[in-house]
């Protein structure tokens, strides 16, 4: 469809509504007024149908050739009736055979103030129902793509599976019970904020080391103080050991146990992250990432190389507790080689380790969990951490004939869309009359 | 793309217009500073009225729609300040319906897979359509499979989308409000015509009779509904059975009907298995089935029969014919 593709999708002059989440489309939808077709007598019936069909076809599958849609069109409009089990148990249907064959007449109360308007079943709104069976449009309806055209692109490029098999025909018509899956990365790309060229993500990447550098000095200062204390302690207790190499023999000997210093450092960092724990700012998130980066090797040291960041905190907590518990017992059994740094901190009250109380730990755990779920990854083609794209929420709805599981980016096409008393399931931007005119347009020669 | 936006913030479009009319004479002076120095056409200094109105909208009304509501829930355009569930203001007949949230899906999965309740019982208890219950379980199974394989879920996307949609959750162990009508039947085409069907006035003309009047083979509405067991239960209740007993009867009836359906499927598969002879070679598994080549329909040209038939063209490779599969097994 070269000509259709060249045409601009969203315009401000003479706007057309589209199946898309564009802000221009939202603006056009917002300022759209009732086109009032057939309200005055200056238009012939043909002109009315023509205009109505034009309005609706611009929305319903504008990327589909008219000839294809004419083949798809069906004059059979599906609807359902709700059968109340209680009513069916009470009556066997003979009450409807009474009177003139459609139940006893309801006596109209003409004198009552409020006459309830009769609710119709909007069959005419189902004019474009066969369109909703198409795979690409179903993907758009399930909110896996930001426009029907993008959904079509995903299908053509093999990003979509139907019942576990790659389906590359956007015109495949779903059958009731079909499950379609879209590649999650494509979905995140389609529905997420775009990556700015040299924008926020790039800036973040360049800024991150600086922020880390800013965050580091405080930690380093603390480390320095501890190291000095350690040196002083060593000078008094174990003068034969070189202060530079205190950590190394210990690491070699007790390989399974991370050093106390490392843990202290981490707890300090965790505290700095939680310093303003109300709103998590970008720099705090960056801090958190560097925290995770440092915590991972620590855990691998402790023998858990496959630890997820969510486990880190629990591990860290338990390690801290172990160290504290071992304090009184190891006082006598401490070997001279391992003691050096531990004893140094033991002489001071081990406040820096214990400082994270249960609430803080929980908060940190939550933060780490969020970070784990939604990591910053410059390799992705969308803005990370993932955020929904702008102007998405006014378009967010999932019709009843689909059941969607967003976690696995999959959906099941339960049944064909139907009309009920008072509502129709086909999402269409115009009301009953315009749909009716369009339906009549396609009825010709049929 | 229209050219750049005027840099000064415009309070109203009228003032912007005035400014732009003043600014227009200077375009020729601006020429040397243009980026594309070789172009002789001066770029449009002012934006169009339409675009200006659009930009004004993005700053005022449109700003509400840029981000989802912080408290969650739908954020559709519509009359200002109204919490409507209509995404299209001109189509009041289309409503955005509630979707099941994570907790509700987990509950359904738990009931079906862990506690072994029947789909019908879960559907009737929670007021969720039968096909939806099955779909929820199926999708949840995929999710669990992903978790067990260590595949990453699209959790941030899921959270964001469910935060934008009207959602429905269930409280376990309590009577919940239903999500949707569960006992719906399709309006059969044969029932849409008007019938003139004279019967004796004394006759009890039931739904059963009405169905046969419409079509000889049509089932009555009592049999076509997804939950015929619910009607049975209501009848039991009307006859004075205690609610607990009626409920137990309903559950056993649902189990029985589901068992029946499963047995039917198994029988079908077994029959298929017995009808085919399988021969395993190194590369292929050949499957042979008995086919009667004499069964060719009335005129010998039935479309779905086996073999090439004289005078019947094979359309499966013909140009211009649709070859898109109609189903994926």
Automatic annotation (TrEMBL), chain A:
Residues 133-193 form the RNA-binding S4 domain. InterPro entries: Ribosomal_uS4 (IPR022801), Ribosomal_uS4_CS (IPR018079), S4_RNA-bd (IPR002942), S4_RNA-bd_sf (IPR036986). Transmembrane segments: none annotated. It comes from the Eukaryota. Residues 213-224 have a biased composition (Acidic residues). Residues 261-270 have a biased composition (Polar residues). Residues 245-258, 340-356 have a biased composition (Basic and acidic residues). The keyword Transcription does not apply. Belongs to the universal ribosomal protein uS4 family. This is 30S ribosomal subunit S4.
Automatic annotation (TrEMBL), chain B:
PANTHER family: 37S RIBOSOMAL PROTEIN S35, MITOCHONDRIAL, SMALL RIBOSOMAL SUBUNIT PROTEIN MS45. It comes from the Eukaryota. This is Ribosomal protein S35, mitochondrial. The lineage of its organism: Eukaryota, Fungi, Dikarya, Ascomycota, Pezizomycotina. InterPro entries: Ribosomal_mS45. Pfam families: Bot1p (PF12298).
């Amino acid at each position: 469809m070269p000509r259709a593709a060249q045409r601009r999708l969203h315009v401000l002059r003479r706007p057309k509504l589209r199946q898309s989440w564009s802000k221009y489309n939202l603006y056009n939808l917002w300022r759209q007024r009732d086109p009032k077709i057939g309200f005055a007598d200056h238009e012939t019936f043909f002109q009315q149908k023509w205009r109505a069909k034009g309005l609706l076809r611009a929305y319903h599958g504008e990327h589909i050739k008219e000839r294809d849609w004419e083949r798809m069109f069906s004059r059979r409009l599906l609807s359902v009736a709700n059968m109340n089990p209680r009513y069916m148990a009470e009556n066997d249907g003979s009450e409807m055979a009474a009177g003139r064959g459609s139940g006893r007449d309801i006596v109209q109360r003409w004198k009552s103030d409020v006459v309830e308007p009769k609710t119709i079943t909007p069959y005419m709104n189902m004019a474009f129902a066969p369109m909703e069976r198409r795979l690409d449009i179903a993907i758009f309806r399930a909110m896996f793509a930001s426009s029907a055209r993008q959904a079509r692109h995903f299908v053509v490029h093999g990003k979509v599976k139907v019942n576990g098999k790659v389906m590359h025909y956007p015109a495949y018509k779903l059958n009731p019970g079909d499950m379609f899956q879209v590649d999650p990365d494509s979905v995140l790309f389609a529905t997420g904020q775009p990556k700015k060229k040299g924008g926020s993500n790039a800036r973040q990447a360049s800024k991150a080391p600086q922020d880390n550098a800013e965050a580091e000095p405080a930690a380093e200062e603390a480390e320095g103080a501890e190291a000095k204390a350690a040196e002083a302690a060593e000078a008094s207790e174990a003068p034969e050991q070189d202060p530079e190499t205190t950590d190394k023999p210990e690491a070699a000997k007790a390989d399974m146990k991370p050093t106390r210093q490392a843990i202290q450092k981490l707890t300090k960092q965790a505290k700095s992250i939680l310093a303003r724990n109300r709103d998590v700012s970008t720099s705090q998130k960056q801090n958190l990432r560097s925290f995770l980066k440092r915590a991972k090797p620590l855990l691998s040291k402790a023998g858990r190389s496959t630890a997820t960041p969510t486990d880190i905190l629990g591990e860290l907590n338990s390690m801290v507790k172990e160290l504290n518990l071992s304090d009184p017992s190891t006082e006598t059994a401490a070997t001279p080689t391992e003691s050096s740094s531990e004893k140094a901190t033991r002489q001071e009250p081990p406040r820096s380790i214990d400082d994270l109380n249960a609430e803080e730990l929980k908060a940190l755990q939550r933060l780490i969990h969020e970070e784990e779920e939604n990591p910053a990854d410059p390799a992705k083609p969308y803005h990370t951490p993932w955020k929904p794209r702008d102007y998405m929420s006014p378009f967010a709805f999932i019709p009843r004939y689909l059941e969607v599981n967003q976690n696995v980016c999959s959906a099941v096409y339960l049944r064909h869309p139907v009309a009920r008393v008072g509502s129709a399931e086909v999402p269409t931007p115009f009301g009953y009359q315009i749909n009716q005119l369009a339906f009549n347009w396609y009825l010709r020669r049929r | 793309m229209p050219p750049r936006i005027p840099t000064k913030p415009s309070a109203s479009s009228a003032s912007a217009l005035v400014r732009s009319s003043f600014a227009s004479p200077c375009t020729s002076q601006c020429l040397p500073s243009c980026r594309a120095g070789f172009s002789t056409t001066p770029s449009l200094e002012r934006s169009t009225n339409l675009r200006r109105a659009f930009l004004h909208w993005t700053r005022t009304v449109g700003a509400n729609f840029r981000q989802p509501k912080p408290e969650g829930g739908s954020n559709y355009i519509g009359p200002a300040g109204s919490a409507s569930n209509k995404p299209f203001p001109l189509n009041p007949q289309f409503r955005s319906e509630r979707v099941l949230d994570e907790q509700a899906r987990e509950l359904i999965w738990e009931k079906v897979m862990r506690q072994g309740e029947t789909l019908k019982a879960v559907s009737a208890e929670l007021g969720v359509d039968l096909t939806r219950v099955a779909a929820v379980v199926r999708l949840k199974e995929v999710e669990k499979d992903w978790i067990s394989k260590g595949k990453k879920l699209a959790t941030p996307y899921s959270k964001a989308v469910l935060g934008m949609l009207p959602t429905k959750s269930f409280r376990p162990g309590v009577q919940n409000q239903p999500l949707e009508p569960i006992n719906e039947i399709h309006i059969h085409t044969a029932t849409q015509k008007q019938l003139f069907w004279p019967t004796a006035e004394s006759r009890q003309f039931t739904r059963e009779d009405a169905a046969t009047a419409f079509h000889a083979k049509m089932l009555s509405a009592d049999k076509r509904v997804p939950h015929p067991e619910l009607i049975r239960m209501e009848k039991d209740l009307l006859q004075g059975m205690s609610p607990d007993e009626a409920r137990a009867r309903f559950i056993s009836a649902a189990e029985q009907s589901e068992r029946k359906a499963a047995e039917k499927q198994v029988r079908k598969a077994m029959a298929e298995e017995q009808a085919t002879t399988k021969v395993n070679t190194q590369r292929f598994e050949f499957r042979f089935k008995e086919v009667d080549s004499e069964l060719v329909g009335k005129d010998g040209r039935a479309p779905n029969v086996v073999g090439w038939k004289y005078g019947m063209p094979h359309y499966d490779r013909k140009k211009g014919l649709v070859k898109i599969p109609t189903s994926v097994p």
